[in-house]
Specification:
The protein is mainly β and 163 residues long. The protein has no helices and 13 strands. The strands form 3 sheets. A 6-stranded antiparallel β-sheet has the order 8-9-10-11-12-13, with no helix packed on it. A hairpin with a 5-residue loop joins strand 5 and strand 6. It is elongated and about 75 Å long.
Length: 163
């Protein structure tokens, strides 16, 4: 079965450059060279004109709100900064946060900073105004508290106070 694509062209500016349902036949493509846009006639029970490639379904280049998930494939980097100084990505086996810039990588938290495994087992707890605890295999191994001595876990299963 042969298909025929019909084209209709306009160079009108403003709203008059947007075709109406009476301007296009079903299957006909309307091109407005002034706006640089293309339109088709849609009929899902009610005829309407649809702008092809409408920015209504895309985020604007400046600002905008993403309300769903952003899924990036393996080795696809989210890059930030003028020189891509900060990169976040997954290579299929490992996940990375890479700070290749001249400054520091700073993590900020309104309360405590917790580093945990996927099962919420702690690696490190940095408690705001209360100290830092380091864990191994779910057990606390070292601790440092403000205005206190540092404690170290010894191999014979006891704590020792260090200067």
């Amino acid at each position: 079965m042969a298909q025929t694509i019909k084209l209709k062209r306009s160079a009108q500016s403003g709203a008059s450059g947007i075709p109406s349902t009476s301007d296009l036949a079903l299957g006909e493509v309307g091109i407005n060279t002034y706006h640089g846009k293309m339109y088709i006639k849609k009929d899902d029970g009610t005829e309407s004109i649809v702008e092809v490639g409408s920015t209504g379904s895309f985020l604007p280049l400046s600002g905008g709100t993403l309300t769903g998930n952003l899924s990036l494939g393996d080795n696809v980097k989210a890059q930030f900064g003028a020189s891509d100084d900060l990169q976040i990505y997954h290579d299929g086996s490992h996940s990375y946060i890479v700070d290749a810039g001249a400054g520091d990588l700073t993590l900020q938290s309104g309360n405590d900073l917790l580093l945990q495994d996927p099962n919420a087992q702690p690696y490190l707890n940095a408690n705001q105004n209360a100290g830092v605890q380091v864990f191994y295999n779910g057990a606390q191994k070292t601790s440092h508290h403000l205005h206190r001595h540092r404690r170290k876990w010894l191999s014979d299963s006891r704590w020792a106070y260090c200067e």
